[in-house]
From TrEMBL:
Membrane spanning stretches: none
Species this protein is from: Megalodesulfovibrio gigas (strain ATCC 19364 / DSM 1382 / NCIMB 9332 / VKM B-1759) (Desulfovibrio gigas)
Superkingdom per UniProt: Bacteria
Protein name per UniProt: Putative beta-lactamse domain protein
One GO MF term: transferase activity
Signal peptide (UniProt feature, chain positions): none
Domain Metallo-beta-lactamase: 21-185
Gene3D superfamilies: Ribonuclease Z/Hydroxyacylglutathione hydrolase-like
Pfam families: Lactamase_B
Alphabetical list of InterPro entries matching this protein: DHPS-like_MBL-fold, Metallo-B-lactamas, Metallo-beta-lactamase_dom, RibonucZ/Hydroxyglut_hydro
Amino acid sequence: MTILSDNLPGDKLQSEHGFAVHVQTSSTSVLFDTGQGAVFSANARSLGIDLESLDLLVLSHGHYDHTGNVAQVLAYNPGIHVHCHPAVLLSRYGVRHGKAFPIGIPDASRAALLSLPADQLHRSAQFHRLTEGVYFSGTIPRVTSFEDTGGNFFLDSTLFHQDTLHDDMALYIVHGDALTVVTGCCHSGIVNTVTHAMSCFPNVRLHTVLGGLHLLNASQERLERTIHALAQLNLTALVLCHCTGSAQGNAVKRALGDIVSLGHTGLQLDFTA
């Protein structure tokens, strides 16, 4: 796995408020999210990752910082198969200074997805296998009492209809007898997400969690309960990316120690050994 877009830069690489991860199996090239802007493709070139050879594109949810380069990826790969939740195409809004501003999938990305042949655009809310060892989480059940979407999100510019972001998806990767969970923003909550992952693979040990945890706006209670839950998982590695939050990430690292690291563009994890 290689991070192509993240909030922190790697050596001679660029950063942005966005997220994208490339996953290479023995036979399949998978892209999870596309970042926000030009950083994504520039970093891919620097890292020697050929965007024209991608087989699958998976979208975690319909926010601009994860779908900004969809049109470019589809232009590189006219035959690529895209997997996403049906709600990815919805219009979405955040709140700044009391006013609505758009945070949904960019128009060019939406148009590119809708232009795909029907057999290449797979809009599903169900857990399913993508390729060898790589799975689409489907809708993640919201079972904890302390986790929320991590902010004020709406489906309309009048800020009337709350957006619960039920299109928030994750990648589940099984390697050997271990399971890795890759999140985009984790609007479903990281505890909900890993609980769902473990229910899908009850006989596989949870090994690594990588991605955004969206703890940036978390209450102290949520942060403490999240840390407590993560501590019970016996993780080998927890890689904090994108929207986790600097202070919140530091609190997680202080509590959980050396298993925790900060993600950055160019970070690679190799599970082939």
